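Much of what follows relies on a compact textual record of a protein's fold. A complete example follows; check for yourself that the lines match position by position.
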Amino acid sequence: MNYEFITVDRDGPITTITLNRPQSRNALHPPAHWECHHALDAFEADSDQWVAIITGAGDQSFCAGNDLKFQASGVTPVLPSSGFAGLTARTNNVKPVIAAVNGYALGGGFEIALACDILLAAETASFSLPEARIGMAALAGGLHRLPRAIGPRRAMQMIMTCERVSAQQGLELGFVNDVIGEEGVLPAAKRWAREICKASPLAIQAAKQAMQHGLDRPIADAMIAQWGCQAMRDLRTSQDWVEGPRAFAEKRAPVWTGR
């Protein structure tokens, strides 16, 4: 597709999606949501694409959330079923997604980052769910993912006071994986993605799906349920399932096919 509000770059098995509305601090309106939806659909469907990175254009803002000026115009928004940025309601995706947060991640922007599997933040990044101050609520997953990440009392504080926290505070709270300095957050995200790609993509997908299915279950139930995951079944009947042990025995690097 030709995109107007995002850019999509593929480097080997890594897809980078950049929210590209810098004049609006990368705030998203319905056409941008749909472009993200189609880009992530393409990423999921392509067996040669193993890891996605989501970032924002420029160095000031990852995503300032919902484009309120567009909303105030009176146009009724029609969003994809996959949610904000085509991601926040995409609960069946088994491929890893990395957020490379390069500035403000506010409202829906923070919810995009929380919906990713790994969250890397530039030193200058900051995070907030300020919806209550404009008479709204963080309904794209923020009200549910944030308390799961940092605990309900601290999440309630952030949601009720609409406070903005720094990247370092996010690391201390536990929703940020790493704070990136001079290297730059996008190069760091690509480095993390390359590390992930050293493993079998099917093994990564099986691990992600098994973890997701087990989070709300007692451990004994989760250990039984993991064998029923489709990604786990795909792994155990794949070429990668044979290639890994064979490469280990032959003392060579494995050649993963994702098939």
About this structure: The chain has two domains: 6-196, 201-249. The CA atoms of residues 82 and 89 lie 5 Å apart. Residues 201-249 form one domain. The first helix runs from residue 30 to 45.
